[in-house]
Amino acid sequence: MGEVWFVTGGARSGKSRFGERLAAGTGLDVVYIATMEPLDEELQQRVAQHRASRPASWQTVEAPRDPVGALQAVAPAACVLLDCLSLWVTNRLLDEGEALMPGDLGRLEVRLAAELAALVNCAQSREGPTILVTNEVGAGIVPETPLGRAFRDLLGRVNQQAAATAVRAWLMVAGRALPLPDPSLGPPGAGGYE
Asked: What is the pLDDT of residue 135?
């Protein structure tokens, strides 16, 4: 049974680099599933820099809206690094348009939960680990726009769902990885962890 590993953190916290180190450390073939859509010149340059920094042996698959399909196509024994859930949620939210109604958000949340469940099921049916990278957006100010608040809420729920399935999880802060304990072990000092 394949393991799900979860890496979260703020912008420029080092989460992608840490995810890459985890993937490289497995010694397996690595497939990088990218959810970024390079829609302008700056993003195209960023994507090119990221690709150039990764080992040439790594395969990159662009899947801005269908990470499940991309994961299903990967060899079962490879390590998969999916970077990132937050851009996948962004892409799906923007597909809905800016004139979202509250019911639209509820339906999108249900679809995202089902797709993430399918992604996790696929990851767990593989041999190699699947590393899910995402942004932690709940620690900042409340976004001023309805679309920003919708994104924060949707991603927060996606992150909780993904983290709940992970065997290993980390929060990145200033380039340092803080291991996140398994919530099923109970509170600190209760015999599970210290």
From this structure: 96
pLDDT in tens, 60-85: 999 999 999 999 999 999 999 999 99
CATH 3.40.50.920 for the 4-181 domain, yes or no = no
Contact (Cβ atoms closer than 8 angstroms) between residue 48 and residue 173: no
Per-residue 3-state assignment (H helix, E strand, C coil) for 29-90 = CEEEEECCCCCCHHHHHHHHHHHHHCCCCCEEEECCCCHHHHHHCCCCCCEEEEECHHHHHH
Asked about 25 being catalytic, the answer comes back as no
pTM of the predicted model as reported, rounded to 2 decimal places: 0.91
Catalytic residue (choose from 50, 54, 152, 157): 50
Domain ranges in the chain?
4-181
